[in-house]
Amino acid sequence: MMSIEQGDALPKGVLVAADGSDIALPEWGAGAPFVLYFYPKDDTSGCTREAQDFTALMPEFTALGVNILGISKDPPAKHQKFTAKYDLTVPLATDEGALMEALGVWVEKSMYGKKYMGIERSTFLFDASGKLVRAWRKVKVPGHAAEVLEAAKALG
Q1: Measured in Å, how far apart are the chain's first and last C-alpha atoms?
Q2: pLDDT (tens digit, 9 = 90+) per residue, 41-88?
Q3: Among the options 36, 47, 139, 145, which is catalytic?
Q4: Which residues 6+ apart lie within 8 Å of 130 measured at CB?
Q5: Active-site annotation holds for 41
Q6: CA 38, 39, 43, 45 torsion: positive or negative?
Q7: How many of the other CB atoms lie within 10 Å of CB of 139?
Q8: Which helix (H) or strand (E) holds 126?
Q9: What are the beta bridge partners of residue 122?
Q10: Alpha-carbon distance 127 to 89, whole Å?
Q11: pTM for the full predicted model
């Protein structure tokens, strides 16, 4: 498992947007600060709350010139349903695993004694040059989006 440290550049990779188009990284965020947040699964309680919280704060992130992208392994069609069901404005993308591996968020988890691989809820804030400014790992959803917004404000 790889990982990323403060000051490291975002690794190259390609994600799939909810509309099925490719999102090339780090070009996607080039020239502006950006947030990548990784979450386990569309339409589950914690992931829904997190997406709603980022959606609620989107106008403030936009005013700062900060882009946001939510990422999971769910397919684009599921992202579209999730977005429509909750009227989300935060863009979502699919990662088949390469970026998750590079950032160290694809980890072994355990539930009811059963071990499995899954996404560790994590958020990464990058500056306009694509360098990592801050990473949040093992994120707890309540208040998280607001905390990321405060860190984004500190960039300016």
Answers
A1: 33
A2: 999 999 999 999 999 999 999 999 999 999 999 999 999 999 999 999
A3: 47
A4: 9, 10, 26, 29, 30
A5: no
A6: negative
A7: 19
A8: strand 122-126
A9: 38
A10: 22
A11: 0.94
Give the tokens for residue 13.
């990779």
Tokens of 59: 């106008």
59-87: b (≥16 Cβ within 10 Å) or e: eebeeeebbbbbbbbbebebbeebbeeee
Report residue 145 as tokens: 């989006």
Pairing between β-strand 122-126 and β-strand 114-119 as defined by DSSP bridges: unpaired
Q: Of 99, 133, 91, 134, whose CA–CA distance to 119 is shortest?
A: 99
Helix (H, G, I), strand (E, B) or coil at 116: strand
Which stretches does DSSP call E strand in 18-105?
Answer: 22-25, 34-38, 67-72, 92-94
Q: How confident is the model at residue 143 (pLDDT cuts 50, 70, 90)?
A: very high
Q: Tell whether the model's pLDDT for residue 26 goes beyond 90.
A: no
β-pair partners for 2:
none
